[in-house]
């Protein structure tokens, strides 16, 4: 038996999507207010989340799990791209420097937990992150590149899906795959519920990163105001 999971996920997470778009960190990002130090912390958090997802989904794929294996398209994998970005931001020794925030750690713990207990729910995490990256990624890449004054590929590999030439066709195929998974309505409801949870984990991570972004904005603003004061005092 299969259900229209793609439509149910889209409808069932609409509110969460709007809420995620309206978090302070994401709103600032969309307005081009993003500094390298908070962005690289986001990349580090994402690295831990994707490592856990790709490891767990990789194992389930190897065992031909009937629900998880079909969505585990290897061309979506982000770990290698994130590693390249981390090397760009933190240097060759990035692995000994980066640490997950508490929010990212909780997200990883949840991924590991469901992989052990109810692997079908990994579909929810897979959809929330990868299809989100594929959908909004190109807009975000352009914004990040401009805001941080980066070259074409520098530190932005995360947004580049080299093995997906037609994003729209890929998403159509992904939706068809979701709709053909051997699940019943009860499992579909649990997957939609888990996708909303995945959005919450993301929002929690953004909230933590917002702190470092506000500190960075504060520093710039302080520099700007004190410079104005100095300029003002010479004028007087
Ligand atoms: C910067 C803010 C964001 C922008 C500008 C953005 C933009 C978009 C756009 C344009 C779409 C395509 C909608 C369509 O095909 O009709 C989309 C879909 C999606 N986004 Fe976002 N998004 C943002 C944040 C997020 C976040 C934070 C997440 C989750 C962590 C996310 C997850 C998704 C998902 C799962 C979809 C697929 C919806 C579906 O077709 O089923 N988005 N987003």
What is the compact description of this entry?
This protein is mostly helical. It has helices at residues 5-12, 14-21, 24-30, 36-62, 79-90, 102-117, 122-147, 167-179, 185-235.
Question: Which CATH-level-2 architecture?
Answer: Up-down Bundle
Number of distinct beta strands: 0
Number of helices: 9
Runs in which pLDDT lies below 50 for 5 or more consecutive residues are: none
Mean pLDDT: 92
Bound ligand species: protoporphyrin IX containing FE
Which keywords apply here?
236 residues, mainly alpha, Heme Oxygenase, Chain A, 9 helices, elongated, binds protoporphyrin IX containing FE
Give the helix/strand layout.
Layout: H1 5-12, H2 14-21, H3 24-30, H4 36-62, H5 79-90, H6 102-117, H7 122-147, H8 167-179, H9 185-235
Helix pairs in contact: 1-9, 2-9, 4-5, 4-6, 4-9, 6-9, 7-9
This protein binds protoporphyrin IX containing FE.
Can you put this structure into words, describing what you see?
This protein has 236 residues and is mainly α. The chain has one domain: Heme oxygenase-like (Heme Oxygenase, Chain A, Up-down Bundle). Helices cover 71% and strands 0% of the residues. The protein has 9 helices and no strands. Helix 1 packs parallel to helix 9. The longest helix has 51 residues, at 185-235. Protoporphyrin IX containing FE (HEM) binds next to helix 1, helix 2, helix 3, helix 7 and helix 9. Residues 9-10, 17, 20-21, 26, 29-30, 127-129, 131-132, 135-136, 139-140, 199, 202 line the site of protoporphyrin IX containing FE.
